[in-house]
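Hi R.,

Here's the input for the copper (II) ion complex you asked about:
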Amino acid sequence: MKSKTYLAVATLFFALILNSCTTSTERRIIDPSEDVKGQVRAVLTDAPEVPPRITNKSNTKVIVELEIIEKQMRLSDGVDYTFWTFGGKVPGKFIRVRHGDLVEFHLHNHPDNMLPHNIDLHAVTGPGGGAEASLIAPGKSAQFSFRALNPGLYVYHCATAPVGMHIANGMYGLILVEPLEGFTPVDHEFYVMQGEFYTSGGYGDPGHQDFDMQKAFDERPDYVVMNGAVGASSGENAMTVQVGETVRLFMGNGGPNLVSSFHAIGEIFDKVYVEGGSLINHDVQTTLIPAGGAAIIEFTCDVPGTLHLVDHSIFRAFNKGALAQIKVIGDENHNVYTGKEKEEVYLPEGAAIQRISQDKEEETGPIVELSLKERMEAGERLYKSNCMACHMDHGRGITGTFPPLVNSDFLQARTDKGIGIILHGLRGEITVNGTKYNNIMPAVSMSDDKVASILTYIHNEFDNGGGLINAADVKAWREK
Ligand code: HEC
Ligand SMILES: [Cu+2]
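And here is the predicted structure with copper (II) ion in place:
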């Protein structure tokens, strides 16, 4: 019995020794009584910018000045929200210090604000991560200091009651405690942070939106966004890099409720500092970023194109705003990716050549016209199954990608009432209600009767001047 226990303990002991020998970099322990030399003011940045790399090689006193500002800003096109911010934007300013630094933190609550606030930095060892020491009314400043004892990427947030509401209104950001050995140089470092918004109206409802506490309780956000607003870091605000360049993303999740399944469409993460700590994983497709957590992600952009940074809980990306983009500019590399090499008709064995139309029989029979009411009913069903995937519910489209069908000046200006678009598809640059689109709509193969119903629905339901379109009209255009 005794010798067995001894053996077990000895085995465990050797296992531990072996284990520590195989770990290449030792964990560095900071001695908080160690000297701090000199002082600097921290450079703070708004997403997607990241402060410059730290070149200091000794423990330094770093002074951080952060101002809390409550202000109304854009949440989406035509949608405003009163955000509570660390530094005037969501997410809050990015703070960068070095492992071992002494951080002297100054938090200012702007006199025009309505409410008291504070800050809980996950990088702090101390009560409430600084929250207790930093609680201040509007027009006041608080100061406290902490030693950056652990390296890593940390979330900070407001922790004033009701805490969930302060976070839901945008009070979060990232603080990086850079390891002593620093990071390997890369061409670009970017700051991206996800967070949800719970609004009184639904997604896209115009005007000023209030915070909805019930939706927050139920964890049912209307918006899930990257960098504080729909489109904040996509489209014309996308980050840009050149082919062959390396990227390090500092990716955080402010929550308040949802976990992010973070993924880049069209890229593989070469390296992930899991949960923002010291453990490095390689060759990752999707990495989990908890609410109140972060990850450091590195990759090389080998081919040109647009990388879509998404929460792969995918309805959030396509329907609630959880999308940021990196445009990779430069020459193709066909050794890595060819693009479409060819497209040809696919004929399974035994299949006869088919017409493109799905509705052959219907078309050969005599034309039976429907009433406006019948066309509207059929049109609604057909719209949902054939058009909504791109043009979205209620025809509201996706700005810059799929044009809206609601009160579309482009559609209303067409003499064919849109018949040609459905029969033949559409490509090339067009302008719809002042916004440019340059994308491809595939031709939709369906019977004259169905085309007539869909278009009748779109002209009436989506405010395009109404009217009844008959199957005979479609047939006439098809034969032109
Ligand atoms: C695969 C995505 C997709 C589907 C499905 C689709 N469209 Fe489109 N549609 C587009 C794109 C993209 C454009 C803009 C093309 C361009 O940039 O030239 C467009 C343009 C249009 C336009 C002209 C622009 C405007 O906003 O008025 C109309 C009308 C239209 N589509 C109607 C429909 C209807 C009706 C259906 C269903 C039968 C449909 N589309 C299905 C992608 C799609
Ligand atoms: Cu607050």
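One thing worth noting: The two ends are 96 Å apart (CA to CA).

Cheers,
M.
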